[in-house]
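Why do we bother with a discrete structure alphabet at all? Because it lets us treat a fold like text: something you can write down, compare, and reason about line by line. To make this less abstract, here is a complete entry for VWFA domain-containing protein. Read it the way you would read a sentence in a foreign language you are learning: slowly, and without expecting to understand everything at once.
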Amino acid sequence: MTNQSSEARKVIVNDMTELIFVLDRSGSMGGLENVTISGFNELVQQQRYLGETLVTAVLFDDQYEILWNGIPADEAKLTRGHYYVRGTTALLDAVGKTILDVGQRLSRTPEQNRPAKVIVVITTDGMENASREFTYKKVKELINHQQEKYSWEFIFMGANIDAAAEATNLGIQEDSAYGFQASHEGIEVMYNTVCEALSEKRRS
């Protein structure tokens, strides 16, 4: 009887997940900086236990800043030096640019090094009011493309708006949309909800 080595029988499964956070830091988030930072950091730490995790974080107001672009989760720690509030809410520009930037990076990444699962979490505490480059139609097309061709998943968190309606406008399913209160307690509940939703998507 021929003995096969364990390496020959081994099936390699890529359990890497990239979590992409599009975080609102417009002026209306004033006073909620510390709870946002602590909630975000706790969420990332909990997600590390579910397998190899990469983190991309984008901060937006009426400007757009990529804070981290696909770094290991254990290197991702948000601070007051990163997260401070200002400006208005260019939500569409932030989402559109994030999808294009990450998509381009992953297209240049060898297939064996790409995450098996990509989940985008969009958080805003108000309506779009400042985008100049992207429209709802264009962002919806981008999101639908990533969902259908690459199986990206999206979660939408919204305060002071109809979260389900706004998610639908973006091409995100209502059952992946959640409303939250723009308060200390509301932010804590929101991050707990996001963590549970991410964990469920990662296990599915």
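What the structure line is telling us, in plain words: The beta strands are 17-24, 53-60, 64-72, 117-124, 153-158, 177-179. The radius of gyration is 18 Å.
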